[in-house]
Design a protein that fits this description.
There is one protein chain. Helices cover about 40% and strands about 20% of the residues. The protein is α+β, with helices and mostly antiparallel strands and about 350 residues long. The chain has three domains: about 80 residues, Winged helix-like DNA-binding domain superfamily/Winged helix DNA-binding domain (Arc Repressor Mutant, subunit A, Orthogonal Bundle); about 160 residues, GAF domain (Beta-Lactamase, 2-Layer Sandwich), CATH 3.30.450; about 90 residues, 2-Layer Sandwich (Enolase-like, domain 1). Strands 3, 4, 8, 9, 10 and 11 form a six-stranded antiparallel beta sheet that branches. Helix 1 packs across helix 3. The longest helix has 24 residues. It is elongated and about 90 Å long.
Length: about 350
């Protein structure tokens, strides 16, 4: 049985009504959402066909219908195939992301803004570093044989490292090391830092060769592609706005997942280590979500970029009847905002 245009319109009308109400949809209600005049009997026949095809289901006898995962998947795929990227965001968007100096603060702030804007739960990963260039190293003496090494990488990612060097260095020695390290390493990736460059630095300052080794270890630790991904979440209480997510132990399991965060890494890993394109919108519906406690949810993810080789994921988590159009629009607008912020940062 083919899914013709009329059946598709009825299916989309069911989805749109169910998104708004959360209640099973009957044939009389459907007629109000269609741009063509159909009799209730015709609509009922088409709904029966859609149910037989697996796109909708009747949850209770004499009740209306609700979409299945298969129905949502058809709707979402059609929406994404027709979707065009929005124009550059307005100077004063409805959800303004304030400029902050540290990426972690920006990401946590953005998670809160997205949760408030969509009324769903949100997750956002810290950046994953691939081919990331080093921007700057700042060494500062701390006394008691320790140095503070501040490593700033592309995208203005800041990592602080305390190095135990076993001796106190003079201010002049620290300044000379800062000059040596930055003149040789600035703009390089980990793969670019060759043995030749390391040997050259040690020849120029052989007295502090061991300190240089420890700084290089700190640089590698700061911009390596760690297996453990930091994940920030927000909006967990929004779950209680959707009855289908609160029955039995569903709500507590979802809240626990958002608090523990570790299972959310499965979503990031399943969406691929590399994005297929800039902003890379992906939608997981029901059983497609690779987290056991989220099989009644949908998750929409997007890829953000802080610079060449620096990427992370933003995810919006809600019921399967979430407003996919609004979520995708919100994510795309957010990605454009981030592009502006980090393009400005990289010009500095």
């Amino acid at each position: 049985m083919a899914l013709d245009e009329r059946k598709q319109k009825i299916l989309y009308a069911i989805i749109q009504n169910y998104q708004e109400t959360g209640e099973p949809v009957g044939s009389r209600t459907i007629s109000k959402y269609l741009d063509v005049k159909l009799s209730p009997a015709t609509i009922r026949n088409e709904m029966s066909d859609l149910e037989e095809m697996g796109y909708i289901v009747q949850p209770h006898t004499s009740a209306g219908r609700i979409p299945t995962d298969k129905g949502y998947r058809l709707y979402v795929d059609s929406m994404l195939s027709e979707k065009k990227l929005p124009a550059e965001p307005a100077a004063d968007p409805a959800f303004l992301i304030k400029r902050v100096d540290r990426v972690e603060e920006l990401l946590m702030q953005m998670a809160k803004i997205l949760a408030a804007n969509t009324n769903y739960a949100t997750m956002i990963t810290g950046p994953r570093y691939r081919r990331t260039k080093l921007k700057f190293i700042q060494l500062s003496p701390m006394g008691e044989g320790k140095l503070l090494a501040v490593v700033v990488s592309e995208g203005n990612i800041v990592k602080n490292n305390i190095l135990d060097i076993g001796e106190d260095l003079s201010q002049d020695s620290v300044l000379a090391l800062n000059l040596l390290l930055n003149s040789n390493l600035s703009g390089l990736t980990i793969d670019d830092i060759s043995l030749e460059i390391i040997s050259k630095m040690k020849e120029e300052d052989g007295e502090h060769a061991e300190v240089i080794n420890k700084v290089l270890d700190a640089v590698a630790e700061s911009i390596r592609n760690d297996d453990k991904i930091p994940i920030y979440t927000s909006g967990a209480p929004n779950i209680f706005k959707y009855p289908e997510l609160t029955g039995g132990d569903k709500a507590s399991e979802l809240i626990s997942t958002l608090e523990e965060k570790e299972p959310l890494g499965n979503i990031v890993r399943s969406s691929g280590e590399e994005s297929e394109g800039k902003h890379d919108i992906q939608v997981y519906i029901g059983d497609e979500v690779p987290v056991d406690s989220m099989k009644d949810c949908s998750v929409v993810t997007a890829t953000y970029e802080l610079g060449d080789g620096v990427q992370g994921k933003i995810g919006i988590i809600g019921p399967k009847r979430m407003d996919y159009q609004k979520v995708v629009d919100t994510l795309q607008s957010t990605m454009s905002q981030l592009d502006i912020i980090f393009q400005d940062d990289n010009k500095e």
